[in-house]
Predict the structure.
Amino acid sequence: MESVVGLLQLIINGAATGCIYGLIALGFVLIYKATEMVNFAQGEIMMLGGFAAYTFVGIFGMNYWVGSGLAVLATAAFGYLLDAVVLRRVIGQPQFAVVMLTLGLAFIFRAGAGIAWGYDSVAFVTPFTNSIVRFGDTLVLGADNLSIIFGTLVLCGVLYLFFSRTRLGIAMQASSQNQLAAYYMGIPVRRVFSLIWAISAGVAAVAAILLVPVQMVDVNSGIVGFKAFAAAVLGGFGSIPGALVGGVVVGVVEQLAGFYLPTGFQEVTSNIVLLAVLILRPQGLFGQVIRKRV
Amino acid sequence: MIAPFKVSYRQDLLLAKTPAAKASYAVLLVALAVIPLVMGEFYVGELGGLFIFAIAGVGLMLLTGYTGLVSLGHAAFLGIGAYAHAIMLAQGLPFLISLPMAGVITAAFGVAIGVPTLRMSGLYLAISTLAFGSIIGTVLQKWDALTGGFDGFAVRTPTILGWKIQGAMGTYYTSLIVLVLVIWLALNILRAPLGRAMVAIRDSEISAQSMGINLAVTKSIAFGVSAGITGLAGGLYAHYVRHLAPDSFDILLSIQLVTIVFIGGLGSMHGAIFGAVFMRLLPQAIAMVRDDLPFGLGRTPGLEPSLFGLILVLVIMFEPGGINGRWMKLKHWCKSFPLHRRAASRRQKSYAKSERLR
């Protein structure tokens, strides 16, 4: 009985970490679907979101909910500007130019955050810090992990409604599917792309805020972005539900590997999953294979 | 861009395109050969390091600049080459066998990672090489029995025909000789059918395939050659640092290697060298002005990577040809002075090419 409960706890902790991976992967996928760019700085944008929340809640002493909302808005505005000022200029250049560009941006963000907020880890008190939830007699879970899972579910519901019910969401879907046709229909495609960048930055900020009770924010927390690649690839780099499922799978596998396998394996699990998926099933779990007519 | 006027097909195969170029390479080679006799130990050591990075740059240029495959895991090949060479030296193999063997072993690793990733397009390849690089980095750190773990691995001083290769001078001359050989090898590959096939794949996979080029074979050879050359650089790097630390072959180093290729200018051998020069000069330049910068900016720990990031961003946005492209434009401007026309160096408009369908 004890081991079953232990296993369940491991899985739920893994799922919580996986939700973070999934949310970052969601940011990759949104941008990739729309503009065919891959944002290697997504993890760093998440880090900036975390620092923004720390600024509003930890330094200015705002209410947790108000401060978090402002942090998400600020990060989203940052994402919008990033696309409008930098990324829009490189449309049409080879894909790896964009990869290198976003990697360069990641370094700049890291140094910028270091100059602005220093190189120490910071955190602030959230309603979920250090509280636990009991289920029955034996199963004890941290409220922090549950809040991550719950927050991810809510966010996904909101995003789903946004993309399927609102005019703007449908315009975004249209521009991702066919830029030219979207132009003809009178959709301001460039602004829509910038808004997609804004949404993906906002999602990253939400992930950062959800992560605060579990892990402190510091300049290097953008490293998570590399693990989120595994999630995105596992889900088949163009699928939104796939990114989330992939994130949870990677998180759980990583947690189990850390428990059952010798040390050192936990760090490389996500990379091994990534390579295995790319070799065995490059289209991922939910991807589709499209061939080009010459 | 600006090419010399061609009057025969033979001209396309020449290693040095004009007599002036031939003369300037000869002068450069002689100058490099006598530099250690007149310059201080510090500069000789730094130049040796520059040559090593230039070798790695040439290796990556073959892959990224000429075959169009981007690799974010080349630090792993540098690490494999360094450890393979150091371990074989420790086993008592002579330098002249151990260094080429290190290159061959690394090339085998390159083919091994190249083959499964062949089906992937640019983006997936970048991600999977990134994953490969980080797996190798972790293995080097955790496999204590082989690499000595965090205690590091002392590299034995080798001898060639009784002459000890030690100090800055030894590294300088061995690296210079290997660099010249590697450039010669790369240029010969590029004017052979293999190199032409690589360039064709870079420009369009589908048309290369329809011309009868075997994509899988060519890409794996490109991967192997590139990894092998980087492995040679790794072997020399082992002598350069003298004490291998497992955590020095990380993602940051991989990205620095790709930065060499990008800043230097994709698709030119000159670019690889320019990039390496830039890469090794920038930290020195920062060290020189560090104390004079305002607002305590010089003491910021992340100054160096962020400057690299900023320059990378600016190069990609405003000068995709890199240093080499700028140099060619400057040369053209001088040649046609005062009749230079702005249109000659204007960038062509480009449009988004979908990689989703392939």
